[in-house]
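Entry:
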Amino acid sequence: MIEKMTKYSFILLSADKEKFLQDLADLGVVDITRSSKPVDAASAAILAEAAEIKKQIGSLEAETSDTLKQLHEEAAAARRKYEAALPWGDFSKEAVEALAGRGLQIHFHQVAAKKFNPDWASEVALQEIAEVKGTKYFTTVTEPDASLPAALQRSEVPAPEASSAELLEKVKQLEKQEADCLADIRKDKETQLPQLRKDYDAAMNRLDNYLAGVAGDSAAEDNLSVYVGFAPSTEDERLAKEFEKLDAFCLTEKSKPEDRPPIKLKNNKFAREFERITGMYGLPVYDEADPTPVISLFFLLFFAMCMGDAGYGLVLILFGLAMNRGWVKIEMFSGLGTLITILGVATTIVGLVMGTAFGIDLRGATWVPEWLHKIMLPAKFPGTTYDYGMVLSIIIGILHLILAMTVKAVGYTRRFGFKEAVSAWGWLILIVGGIATALLALGGIFSPNVTRWAIIIVGALSFLGIFLFNKPGRNPLLNIGAGLWDTYQTATGLLGDVLSYIRLYALGLAGGMLGGAFNTLGTMVLGDGGVGRWIAFVLILIIGHTLNLLMCCLGAFVHPLRLNFLEYFKNSGYEGMGAKYKPLKNNN
């Protein structure tokens, strides 16, 4: 959920603003309205300093620099020249110049071998040099005033800059300079990067506090300054007492959506682990619903289905616990130990239900306890030839989309009023009512007569919402036209969205099959045993399953994000344009 914010407006003497901002920073909970761009020379200088540090960080992280880029380009150009000169061999440039000094001209030629005419040698002094990949290379020598035959003029090419040996030496020199430059960058990366990051954070912190200081709107000929800030409403009582001590007049009011207050999410321990996933897309605006609780459940389920292996789930649990205990320290996973553990638990449970562990099909394993067999889903959906996982993925996808459409209808009604949500309700009634009617009819609960009336009622209500009243007060003909276009877009979009959820089944199946392939390969190598075969068997399993686990984790992270960000957010009308709550705090 989104934590409620209180809006504060402060009026104070401009001369007191430095002490005022320091007092707010001591409180550490007030988000002061800031300028997002430099407002004067001082802030521009701080921003320029931060930008230069960021550029250095980017160059070190990418292992690039202007010098390295120039050397790389020069080496590439030298290699092209060397490859072009290679067919000509190690000719002497001095010999060419000596011929020119005697009044002779040497010409270089390149022509397709099948077009080369040996009779040219009778017309002009000609020397064949090489034939490479169907191309003939040769030279001719003429008197100063003599002209080449037309056929030879067309085949003439510029003379190489130097011999192939000289050009190769230049390539080696440039490649060595490039390697040395890259080594220097990597050395600087190890020694300078941590300090540069600290310097960048310090500069941005100075800029943040400075911009807060100049964000006040001046009034009364610059004698007064006005500031606007936001703080969680849970701090109202404490802040009221603290603000009484300030040399400023304070106006307090509840934040409204049009104030665009900063967003601070407030969820339970479980959902809080998934707030960073919401933040990857964008925080909700103040009057939107926080999607984190929904994302936490469905991302967890989607991840576990994409992994689909109980053995890999156990590995994730151990890895997450090791991260939390500090036994394993990997910067990119910093602070994710608990989330990884939760994902591992879900993967283990889903893997057991789907009957797969380390690529082994548990359904057919005789050593698996009977109680475990009972919780496993059958391979095929009852009464069909379809895999249970595929049907289950589609069912979950339909429920996910229905939930998104429900959130959209309810959210639009609450935010904009029922008139703006009529179309959303019409589509929700059509889809939910249609599915419910079909299931009840197929289950024998609805008689044919009741089914007919249910279809009529659902169809009528949906028609009114989608076609006639999608925009109340507008010309009905325009509404019908808009409804037809909306029908086309929604129908085609929903079909594609539902089919997208098959990836949950496909990724889980692919991971299980690849894990099983490594098991089979290891068993084939093991054969009748022996120390060497056992070592090869263990290495194949460890390396194979490690690679498979990494690939499964990547797919299980990316595709659930896609299903939530595209399918769910699109159909739920989520904006995600909220600004993060950033209270003013002291540097120390």
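The chain has a mean pLDDT of 86.
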